[in-house]
Protein 1
Amino acid sequence: MQTIIEPFRIKSVEPLRFTTREQREKLLEAAGLNLFLIPAADILIDLLTDSGTSAMSTAQWAAMMRGDESYAGSESFYRMEKVVRDLTGFRHIIPTHQGRAAERILFQVVCRPGHVVPSNTHFDTTRANIESTGARAVDLPNPEAADTQSRLDFKGNMDVAALERLIDEEGAPRIPLIMLTVTNNSGGGQPVSMANIEAVKRVASRHGIPLYLDACRFAENAYFIAMREPGYADWAPKQIAQEMFSLADGCTFSAKKDAFANIGGLLCSNDDRVALQETNLLILTEGFPTYGGLAGRDLEAIAVGLEEILEPDYLHYRIVSTEYLGRHIADAGVPIVEPPGGHAIYIDAARMLPHIPRHQFPGQALAVELYRHAGIRSVEIGSVMFGESAPHELLRLAIPRRVYTQSHIDYVVEAILEINQRRAELRGLEIVEQPTFLRHFSARFRQV
Ligand code: F0G
C-alpha cells in the first residue's frame, strides 16, 4: 500500500478549540505578538514543541497505574532501569525531572572555568548550563549544513577536522567531554550518521576525552541511519540505537521527546567517580536516586515509551509524516531547511520574506501571521531567540508525537501556502519591551 497511515487508532480525544480571526487579533495584541504569552486554550494546532506533548499509549497509561511511589527502591525505578540498561548499556542510570536537569548536574560535576565543551550543535539549555559553570560551549557543525538548501543525508554531523583543531588549540585536559546531539535540533532536526559518531569517538578516545550523546531524539536518528546509511538497512532501529549508545561514555536525555513521556529525563554514564558526584547533587535538588524528581508512575511511562518509540512502524510513520509536511510546502515554493528533519520542519523565514531585514525578525513576523491567519502556534528560532549570533532566521513547526492526524497537517499546509501567496504584504517587527534576558519567552513586539 502507498498510503502511510497513523499506526494507532484514537481511544480518548481532546476537543480542539476554535477562535475567530477577530479573537486572535485581540489575543495577539494582549500578548505583545509573543506566542509564548498566548494561553494554550486559544491555540488550535500547537506546533510550538514536540517536547512533553506526546500522546501516551494505552500501555503507558496502564503501566502508570502500577507506579510504585516508594521514596527509596521503587519497583518502577528498577523496571525503567532495566529498559534503559538494555538499550544503552550504561552502568549508571540517574533519573531527573527533565533533560536540562541532567545537563545541569553533569556540567556542574565535570566543567570548570576555562573548560571548553564541543558539540555538533548545542541545544540552548545545554549551552546555558555549560556556560553557567564558566566553561565555553562550542558548536562544530558540518560546514555544508550552513546552506539551508543543501540536501545531505546526515546534515547533523560534527566537523571532525574542526574537532581535532580545537583539541590541538585548547589541549585535551581543558575538554571534559565531547557532545553529539542526535538528532541535531538547533541545526534543523538533522540526523548524525553512525560513521560520524564512530569518527568522533576515535578522536575522543585518542585524547582520552569522554563522548556523550544528547540523546533526546535517538530513535528518530536511528531510523534515519536505517534509511540512509549504507550497511544498516537490515538493522532494527533498536539495534542501531544500541550501537549508537555503545560508542558513547554517557548521555543526557529528555524523556519528553523520544520516550513519549510528558515529563522526565536521564543522566547516564560509565564513570563510577562522576556518577557518585552526580548522585550527590541529584539528592540536593532533584530527589533520591530511585526517583530523581519524578513520580514512580512517570518512570513507568518512560519505561514503556522507550520500547514503543523503537517500533519500526511508528518510526516509519513519524519520519514520513514529518517529511509530508515539509515536501508539501517546499514543493509549492516555501523555502525550508532541506531535507526535512525528524521532529520538525523549519521554514527559512529570511528567504521567504527577503523584504524583512533580520533586525525586524522575519521568523517572528511569520509566526505571528500563522497564528493570526489559522490559529497555529510555531516558534521562531532566529534573532529573537539567539540575538545577533543567530545563524539563520527560522520558523520551527515541531510535530508532537501521535497527536495530530494527516488532516490537521493538511490544514497547516493550506495555511502556510495561503500566507506564502501574499508574503510580500507581511511586515517586520520591533521589540518594545524585554523584561527578562530570555527574550523569546518574554519580549513584546510591535509591527513596524
Ligand atoms: N537537548 C535537546 C536537543 C533538546 O531539544 C532539549 C529540549 C533539551 C536538550 C532539554 O530537554 O526540555 O527536557 O529540559 N528541547 C525542547 C524543544 C524544549 O522545544 O526543542 P528538556
Note: The mean pLDDT is 97.
Protein 2
Amino acid sequence: MSLDIVVGAQWGDEGKGRIVDLLAEEADVVARYSGGDNAGHTVTVGENTFKLHLLPSGIVHPHTIGLLGNGMVINPATLLDEIAMVRQAGIEINPQRVKISHAAHLITPGHLALDAAREEARGAGKIGTTRRGIGPAYTSKVNRSGLRLERMLTSKGFQDALSVHLKDVNHQLDRLYNSPPLAEDEILAAYSGYAEALRPYITETGEFAARSLLEGKRILAEGAQGTLLDLDHGTYPFVTSSTPTAPGALVGLGLGIGSADRVIGVVKAFQTRVGEGPFPTELSGDLASRLRGTGENEWDEFGTTTGRPRRVGWLDVVLLRYAARINGITELALTKLDILSGLESISLGTAYQVGTSSTKTLPLGPANLDEMTAVYETVPGWPEDLTGIRTWEDLPQQARVYVAAIESLVGLPVRTISVGPERSQVIQR
Ligand code: GDP
Ligand code: IMO
Ligand code: MG
C-alpha cells in the first residue's frame, strides 16, 4: 500500500500545490479529496505558472492520473474552464487521465447566490468566504438534498432534480434574503451542456483508487485549505465546510483506515490567513507589508482564488503542534524560507498567555484563540538570498538554526525546504 497525504498545516496557501508537484514525480495517481474551487494551488515549472482550483496539481506531470474524490464539491463551469486552460498549455486531459467521483457534489449558481446572501446577512460577523458556493453546497449535501455528479449520467432525472433545487434556492433567496430569483431555464440549459461534457469523466473513483493501491501504484492525496480551516478542528466558525485534514483523505477518496503511509504537513515559514477569524501571531505595519509583499511578485501574499491581501504574522508553533496531532503528520515541508532573508530577527510564537498563566497547548482548541496573547522566542535572521541554494549545508547558519528550532519545537523532521516557487528551488534532506 502506498498512500501519501499532503495537508496544509496552517490556514491554507502554505504552498501545497508546489509540494504536490514535487512529490507527484514519484506518484501514479494524484487525488484531490475535499473542498472545491475555493482552493487555489500554484505550480511553477520553468516559465509556466499554473493556478489550479479543482484539478489535482499533479496533473501537470504527464505520467499521472488525476482523481477528483467524493469529498469534493465541484462547480462544473470552473472545472471545464480549467480543463480548457491546462489543455492550452499542452497538458492532455481525457477520461483515461482524469476521473471524477460519481459521489462528489455539484455546486450550482444557487449555491453561489446563497453564499453571497448569507455573507451579506452576517454583516460584521461575516466569515470572509471565497463566495464560491462551498458552504451552501456542503449544506445541501448534509441536508441530503445535494446533487451528486452521478445525477449527470441521466439527463431527465438530472433536469428534474436541478429544477427542484433551484426552486428551493429561489424560495430561500426571496423569503430569507430579499434577493431576486435566479433564472431557472438558463441554468438548466447551461447544466445540460456541462453534463454532456463531464459525463465521460464520472466514475467510481474509490474503486479505482483501491485497485490502484492493490496493484502497487502510488497515490498522492492532495489536501486543499488547511488544518485550521477544518470544519471540526479549525477556528470555528471561521472555517470552511469540509474536512481538509488527513482523515478527510480517506473519507473523501473512499479508502479504508490503514491505507496511509506518510502524512506530509506543508507549512509556510511564517503564518498567513485570508478571511476573518482569530490570528494570535498576526503582524501589522511595516513588518507585515514586508512579509506580504506588494503584489508585484507572483508569490506575494495575495489570494490565488480571490486576489484578497492575506493577513500575515510570525509562525505559530502552538498551532503547528496542534496540526501535527490532528493530522498525524510524519514530516514537514517548509515553504517560503527565502522570504525571510534580510530580516534582522525572526520570532516564533511558542506559547500563549491566558490571564496570568501561559500554555503551550490549546485548552479549548483553536476556536477560542481570541483570548490568547502569543508569547515569542526570537532567533537571529540572515542577510543572504536563499533562492539559489540547493543543499542544507549551503544554507546560512542562522537559517539552519531557524529550521532546527521548528523541528525541535514541533517534534517533527523538516524533510523538504522550499526556497522559491519554481520546481527546482528546493532543498531535500
Ligand atoms: P496552496 O494553496 O497551498 O497550494 O498555496 P498557493 O499556491 O495558494 O500560495 C503559495 C504561493 O507561494 C504561490 O504563489 C507559490 O508559487 C508560492 N511559493 C510556494 N513555495 C514558495 C517558496 O518556497 N518561495 C516563494 N518565494 N514562493 C513560493
Ligand atoms: P487553498 O487550498 C486559504 C478560507 C476563506 C474563508 C474560509 C471559508 O488554496 O489553501 P469558503 O469559501 O471555503 O467557505 O471560505 O476559508 N479558505 C481558504 N483560505 N486557502 C484556501 O485554499 C482556502 N479555501 C478557503 O478565505 O476564510
Ligand atoms: Mg491557495
Note: The longest strand covers residues 345-354.
